[in-house]
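Forum: Protein Structure Q&A
Topic: Joint prediction for protein chains with partners

I've read a bunch of threads here and the consensus seems to be that you should model interacting components together rather than docking separate models afterwards. I'd like to see that in practice. Below is the full input, 784 residues plus whatever partners are listed. Could one of the regulars post the assembled result?
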Amino acid sequence: MTEWHLAGGFRYAGIVSGLRSEPDRRDLAVIVSDRPAAAAGVFTQNRVVAAPVRVSRDRLPRADARAVVVCSGNANACTGGQGLADARRMAELVADELGCVPEQVLVSSTGVIGRPLPMPVLEAGIPLAVRAAAEGRQALSDAAHAILTTDTGIKIATRVVGGHTVTGFAKGAAMIGPNLATMLGFVLTDAPVGEHDLHVILKAAGEASFNCVSVEGHTSTNDTVFLLANGDGPKLAGHDLAQFREGVFAVCGELARKIAIDAEGAEHLVTIEVEGCRSDEDARRVAKTVAESALVKTAVFGADPNWGRVVSAAGYSGVVFEETDLSLWMGDLLLYRAGTPLPFDPAAASAYLKHNREVHFRLRFGGGPGRCTFHTCDLTTEYVRLNADYTT
Amino acid sequence: MTEWHLAGGFRYAGIVSGLRSEPDRRDLAVIVSDRPAAAAGVFTQNRVVAAPVRVSRDRLPRADARAVVVCSGNANACTGGQGLADARRMAELVADELGCVPEQVLVSSTGVIGRPLPMPVLEAGIPLAVRAAAEGRQALSDAAHAILTTDTGIKIATRVVGGHTVTGFAKGAAMIGPNLATMLGFVLTDAPVGEHDLHVILKAAGEASFNCVSVEGHTSTNDTVFLLANGDGPKLAGHDLAQFREGVFAVCGELARKIAIDAEGAEHLVTIEVEGCRSDEDARRVAKTVAESALVKTAVFGADPNWGRVVSAAGYSGVVFEETDLSLWMGDLLLYRAGTPLPFDPAAASAYLKHNREVHFRLRFGGGPGRCTFHTCDLTTEYVRLNADYTT
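Posted by a regular:
Agreed with the consensus. Here's the joint model:
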């Protein structure tokens, strides 16, 4: 088993509750902190927000979180007032087991939209899951499995920084999936950090990682990342806090990259590097537009070095630039320099796309300070097949 | 042959110049107005703009246009200073034949980006095309064929209004194609209309038609629509001008719809109707976001009534609304009313998608005046196959 570092004082479970039709599929996860933990969250920017997001958002940041409960297979989104009551009930079932108040419990869901949760299944399953929660790698692995939808494998990333451990696991990417595969991330640490510092760090780490991954740009109703810190003692500050922040960035970055490479039907991880823009936000807009272009993504799938698609996608990003400021590399190959195409060997360029599972495009604009690294995947016939039939 | 109405005083040609590798493929079109014509144009909003767009944009609006020359197979985009010189030379070759100045000639191109035009082919072909220009349906059909890239057929729409004729033809949609299939439209009329009125009418008609069609949202470097009016006599005004405007709207609307239904690999024409927004622009943003969602489009392809994808796409459009204001119909079937899902028969809903080549989604928000009708197509495995390999 991979060398995972486990933050102290957290227990995990991932059980087969029966939410899903597959009989042996883990579908219900809990994370329990033995001590009250500082907690922060970042959430989808969609106007249509799932019930568990509404419930958890109202509870954060806070200083005394005790647990997170997550179900997969049903998003509990577009489910009206009943959905809100159901999400609150999920937390209440955990709180009853732990002897805490429901507000100390956070909730996430992922799966199909617009169907009520099968509450009898959860009434039975949640207490079992809380009682099953245990320390150790197997329990973490079980929880990481239970949150998956169409992911092909679990995604775990850990770091040890300054004597403290940061343990993260995640699933999905944007709405990659036939399940409307929400992106969920859970980052746990035994470092002592206050909830407001946590919130600032998580927001910045999320921007640089999960917000720089896109499969097809469809923002889910359920996207959620939680960061819980249960460390005792004086809160980290100064250099120690900065070091902790680096650890959270590293864990979120690794999880985001794992999400992109595992996107449905994907054969390539595509990294778009943009530099020289007026601001990081401009660079991100360019990178995101290129990353979400169906024509760029099909070209990578077909190993077609059709670089005009990349340049033209940059052009409709909404960012103002002069064509004569733009240069483009594919891998090490400079294809377009300051607005002028360069001769290149199409066979060699095609071979680069064909023989590398990870491919890079680099766009350089003028001399501005703005930059962004963004990840996506190719658009394949398999993606269309997977997404063409789910609910029926 | 279909009953096309031909605006008087225009001649057309579409010839096999040899720009394309297919030996019998028409690839060079000209439109000649026997009299100087008022002319207006609307163009791509991409920051990366093809040379023919730059050249034509500088020449419009004008009162004395004499011709349009169009080549397909090569976009003359991202071609630097040479590209600009080549686009100007295309116009000059036409002007030499007609005995007018080059500024009276407009230029368009569509095809692959980043390759220099094969000018010897055009030096030979353009004079032949101008000399071949003729009146009549066959000549119009030839020109309409010569501008195609991956379109499966020509797109022509005509109207007679107030004794004048509006004749339009078009190709492509957004960047639907492996050719980077630009959208081009040419609308000709024998009505007497001044160039500034033409510009205002064309801009509004383009917004309501070509700007409400999207295949995958990839804005081309070459999108162009020209409107030429060569009528003698006092310029239309008041009621007559309003009637003429309706004719242009009708022709542009029909061409846009033909573009959407002919999108690459498409099996469905999908119409998104949005109403009750604060403004038409808000309605258009919602409609465009739904229309460009890969998950909505794959669901239609798979006849999967996964309506959560439509609602969640509306939610990330950037338009502010309350979920409880939103209702959704698929065809006549109300699926989601004021934020609450309604029970429905999935088999019947799937059958609606399966058995109709044209399908409708209707989203109603609050009671605002803003509305939009937008067209797109489904995302099919065939689309990915067509776009996965072009330049190599």
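The mean pLDDT of chain A is 92.
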